Amino acid sequence: MPPGAFPGEFEQMVLLAILRLGEEANALAILRELDDQAGRRVSRGTLYKTLDRLESKGYVAWTQEEATPERGGHARRLFRVSPDGIEVLRASRDALHRLWSGLDPVLGRPAT
Amino acid sequence: MPPGAFPGEFEQMVLLAILRLGEEANALAILRELDDQAGRRVSRGTLYKTLDRLESKGYVAWTQEEATPERGGHARRLFRVSPDGIEVLRASRDALHRLWSGLDPVLGRPAT
DNA sequence: CATCGATGAAGACAATGTCGACATCGTCAG
DNA sequence: CTGACGATGTCGACATTGTCTTCATCGATG
């Protein structure tokens, strides 16, 4: 297996955050989702770097946002997860799932 | 948050594999468990390096195996997850759990 | 035009993931 | 006793991922 075959821990979280946001996945929203759902706070730079890497692996794609960006500055990018991205997410979820199964007595049940 | 606050993807898997093995957590068994449950095959060197890092973070501890190692060579090391290790596992599981929740329509349900 | 706010991009460096090569120590055939 | 062998474990090197700060852009505003 080549080294980069598995997505890192943070890469997975970013992919999941994008999926959750649907059409609204711009950088700032992803940052907020990551903080809200996983308590993970990172700088914009960190996120963009990760997004770049995910793109070069073909796990995400993006398009410029239409509507006149009144907010000024660069036009925002809207991200979406590619089929390959979904595939890899599914695979790593299943792997973790199997490792977790049966460990509730030790770890307790997941919090809602 | 300090950089090394979150365990990497593979580190998590190793911790889980050790938990699953209970008293039997020697290196080779961990390697087998990782392969069987998660389809993750790595070399012994990779595992030991990861184990060393987990130890220096205080997430795992180990002891020498007693019984005359007829298998020859070094006495095997038996690993176990520390309370801090359990704590960090629980935290990252909860984080992923929240990100995953509600995405079954897209990802499908986890395979057994 | 100087500045500000919202974005995004780049550079640098730390943490993780990964392997292959090598060191050790019993056992066992000669 | 000695050298080959198998089971472990250790190391150094290098690729990938995670992370931040600093810099560059561009519209709107004063």
Secondary-structure-derived class of chain A: mainly alpha
CATH superfamily of chain A: Winged helix-like DNA-binding domain superfamily/Winged helix DNA-binding domain
CATH class of chain A: Mainly Alpha
Shape of chain A: globular
Topology-level CATH name of chain A:
Arc Repressor Mutant, subunit A
The mean pLDDT of chain A is 90
Labels describing this entry:
112 residues; two-stranded antiparallel ribbon; 54% helix; mainly alpha; Arc Repressor Mutant, subunit A; DNA-binding; homodimer
Structure characterization notes:
The structure is a homodimer of 112-residue chains. Chain A is mostly helical and 112 residues long. Chain A has a single domain, classed as Winged helix-like DNA-binding domain superfamily/Winged helix DNA-binding domain (Arc Repressor Mutant, subunit A). Helix content of chain A is 54%, strand content 9%. The first copy, chain A, is built from five helices and two strands, in the order αααββαα. The first copy, chain A, has a two-stranded antiparallel ribbon with strand order 1-2. The interface between A and B is large, with 36 and 36 residues. The structure holds a DNA duplex (30 and 30 nucleotides).
